[in-house]
């Protein structure tokens, strides 16, 4: 295949096509579920009806004019790339960011890759004795992230498509209020958008993880929980009461000395998570909560938020 031509027709840099070509090689892919089964699977993945309708409208039927040969090649190789790292826990970008304004096949391209891998990761879970309840709760982060992307008018998905590769490789598990990320040494914590982060809910999730990972991954030995997040920025203490859920979450951690993070603009991440927008001017953002007012006032004062890392013993 001519990588330059493929990249041009996909509207992406050639080095990103070359990366998929090199990493996927001749590795086996995985087939999409039957179209007739897809609506029930999308429902299990908590995909909203409006997003599900678009996904079905762009379905890669054999005779679909929406799917060019280059797009079909990329779907096959991106699926192979992610599936080849089943059980891996590092960040993995499944493929290039596509021009999503070309229609539903392009807009939801990586959804199709994850749908193809759903049975693969379910099998991986079963092999580790993990029940369907945890599996579907974990994978339902797909629907949650699609809904966020819709709220953000398409600004969220480029980050989320790589994030979701963790779920479909068996690296992340949602146990109650928190998501737990397997690693080399620590068990990483992520905080999904799923309701209040009360101390009781956090403690229950940590207790669940303490039982879950020795049972299902007995060869992995974790001694600490860890987290990297703007939620751990000590500057939040200037604005939030000491008994707030965020501050009580911070209190669990011993923070590492601050270092400027590579590849993360924390001001952008705070706006992404607190307001779910990256383009609205500060003066037009809502000020309904203490946190929203804190974020706006801090930035308008010319200050910046920090991405901080911390850990505490299991």
TrEMBL record:
It holds the Pfam family NAT_N. Residues 178-312 form the GNAT-like C-terminal domain. Residues 37-170 form the N-acyltransferase N-terminal domain. InterPro entries: GNAT_C, NAT_N. This is Acyltransferase. It comes from Virgisporangium ochraceum.
